[in-house]
Specification:
The protein is of the alpha/beta class and 334 residues long. It is built from 11 helices and 15 strands. The chain has 2 domains: 235 residues, Rossmann fold, CATH 3.40.50; 50 residues, no CATH class. The longest helix has 17 residues.
């Protein structure tokens, strides 16, 4: 994506972030990649990939165990999730699974040969498409209310300094009116999620039968943050968002706006518990009968606690979009 610059080099945030993240030499395409700059549920514990593998098995059952079962990992990074899912699947299911990693960066060396590396999601799949912390990195416009109560685009220079641009109109104003209405109070901000809505709809359209899941830090209409959520991450720490390619640039996702008919929203805590991830401590008696097993179980409980923690990863949103199958996570299981 490219766009006009103001005389002082300022551009709308969506254009600036797109170039900083995905342009030549951008944050997500440079050597080494972004892995050192943030940590997702995938990195927190192998329990996450194991839970996704169990979800894939449920989708497999709902599909009638097809001869070819697809698993698509959107925004795959270095392929950690798709590799973990393949390792966690029962042998019979793994033998039928066709695994795809969708990522703009180059294929990592040493990646499991069973994983197909793509820059665009495959079409017409039967199986599970899983997007863990993908939508938050789809760049969006940032807007702010000026002193007269007018909602305007926020422009940004390469050093991160900002100024206000043109008034928001058309479909962007319509999206704000429906999904993130702003009072005419100077300084209130929002992020316009239209590009994410469209990206998600396009990804779901590639699923012929099965399930699409988006997992991200999210907010819902009626409880949007008054000053938006735009931020950066550099070397594992939150930082000012600067569109120069040196840091990740992200914003929370309006998952309710992304949802298509038939979708369901729940928290990661609810979803993982329904998939068997619990933080219960092992019985102390196990420490006597099998000390090694007790230590492993205790470590697993700690990892499960992190994945489901209130105020942390457990509050992430899961958007489930069944396509031609029943919801594989029954309501009474969450």
């Amino acid at each position: 994506m490219s766009g006009p610059r103001a005389p002082d080099g300022a551009r709308p945030w969506r254009v600036a972030a797109e170039e900083a993240l995905y342009g030549a030499g951008g944050f997500y395409l440079r050597a080494g990649g972004p892995a050192a700059h943030f940590r997702t549920s995938v990195h927190a514990s192998p329990l996450f990939a194991a839970a996704v593998a169990r979800l894939l098995c449920r989708v497999d059952e709902a599909l009638g165990r097809p001869g070819e079962l697809a698993f698509v990992d959107m925004g795959a990074g270095h392929g950690e999730l798709v590799g973990g899912v393949l390792d966690a699947l029962p042998a019979e299911v793994a033998a039928r699974t066709r695994a795809y990693a969708v990522e703009l960066a180059a294929r990592p060396s040493g990646l499991d040969h069973r994983i197909e590396w793509l820059t665009e999601p495959p079409r017409g799949i039967t199986g599970l498409l899983f997007a863990n912390e993908w939508l938050d990195n789809v760049p969006v416009e940032v807007v702010e209310v000026d002193a007269a109560g007018v909602v305007r685009l926020v422009l940004v220079r390469e050093d991160g300094s900002e100024l206000l641009g043109a008034a928001v109109g058309g479909e962007e104003a319509e999206w704000l009116g429906r999904w993130w209405p702003l009072d005419p109070e100077e300084g209130l901000r929002a992020e316009i999620g239209l590009p994410r809505d469209r990206a998600w709809a396009a990804a779901v359209a590639g699923v012929e039968r099965g399930l699409a899941v988006a997992v991200d830090y999210a907010h819902l209409v009626g409880s949007r943050p008054p000053f938006g959520t735009l931020t950066g991450f550099r070397e594992g720490r939150e930082a000012a968002p600067v569109p120069d390619g040196s840091c990740d640039i992200t914003a929370h996702v309006a998952l309710d706006a992304c949802a298509l008919p038939g979708a369901r929203l729940l928290t990661q805590r609810e979803a993982l518990r329904a998939l068997g991830v619990t933080a219960g401590r092992p019985p102390l008696s196990l420490a006597t009968t099998d000390p090694a097993a007790y230590v492993r179980a205790l470590a697993g409980a700690g990892e499960a606690a992190e994945l489901t923690a209130p105020g942390g990863l457990g509050d992430f949103g899961w958007l489930l979009q069944p396509v031609g199958i029943p919801d594989p996570l029954p309501h009474d299981s969450v």
